């Protein structure tokens, strides 16, 4: 056995030597890898420190810039305060810009540049006549403004009001108040119809404006408005506005020290705001103002008024007359009856039944009415009923844009109501 062990001893020694050499080599490789890893981490740390240093420096520079801008604004404010600058003084100019956005392209400017000026600048080419405008108006506008621009509910009236501008509650319409026709064209083109803004073509806009002019008795029923004759139109209230000269005449007064005490010797309450419970009376109930805005001198039919044909109104059915008074509301925008009535868009209707057609003094009738007057035709209950049912069918060429009364009962009631008022 001892001889066998002696034989394996050299082999064991050689194996141990090989294992030692292998372990030494592997340890050397591991150490080199560790050094390389540590060097990479050091490099990453140095890069992070460099970035953080750069960011801190940029933040410091930005803070310094903001501080400088703040100091500039404070300096401007201090200068304005020391100079007693008020709200009417233009803002100070500050150099520089915010660097936001870009310049608008010509195509973008053209898409927004659709306003129309009083001298006709901005008007597109196009044309539209009164008849076409009436059909468009009934379809797209009448639900708010009425069939002939008289207004529905709280929606605005577009026609009439010429004799009301000096009143306490004037009726400001396109015809009575607006100084430039371009305002109507521009607004309708951009904002109407309600809920469908921008859907009208240029020709449709011209036609609707032409019908509104016709409703205000500014043009005849065969009129056509176009970009060529637009500037020829002169509005009723074109001279009713003045140039705003407050900057020259009044601004210096506003810069004076205001009086804040002893302005009046005594103060007394001359009236109370009782509308909508602003200052309700002791009972706490609302005191509403039920004043009418119609402003038309329409009289109420009574049994003691004689009719135009010499009979007493008592011969008429009071219920029928009362119904006619209600039906006449659709006529009040253009016509007046009763004491103090005057011509408006349509003539006075006092004494209409039995009167020669087209004979109201001072009213400018259309050709068809003038021809009937020359022929001596008279308003009878029969032809008046036919006219109320279909104005244009009976009197072709009439300026009256009303489409007609639909119910025969309303026609009979209207005729009975008109018979109450003497000429």
Write the layout of secondary structure elements.
Elements: H1 2-82, H2 106-112, E1 127-129, H3 130-140, H4 142-145, H5 181-191, H6 202-215, E2 224-226, H7 246-249, H8 251-254, H9 318-327, H10 367-374, H11 381-389, H12 391-394, H13 408-418
Helix pairs in contact: 3-6, 5-6, 9-13, 11-13
Describe the fold and architecture:
With 423 residues, the chain is mainly alpha-helical. It folds into three domains: 9-85; 111-292, Cytochrome c-like domain (Cytochrome Bc1 Complex, Chain D, domain 2), CATH 1.10.760.10; 313-418, Cytochrome c-like domain (Cytochrome Bc1 Complex, Chain D, domain 2, Orthogonal Bundle). It is 42% helix and 1% strand. The protein has 13 helices and two strands. The chain has helices at 2-82, 106-112, 130-140, 142-145, 181-191, 202-215, 246-249, 251-254, 318-327, 367-374, 381-389, 391-394, 408-418; strands spanning 127-129, 224-226. It has a two-stranded antiparallel sheet. Helix 5 (181-191) packs across helix 6 (202-215) and helix 9 (318-327) crosses helix 13. The chain is elongated and about 150 Å long.
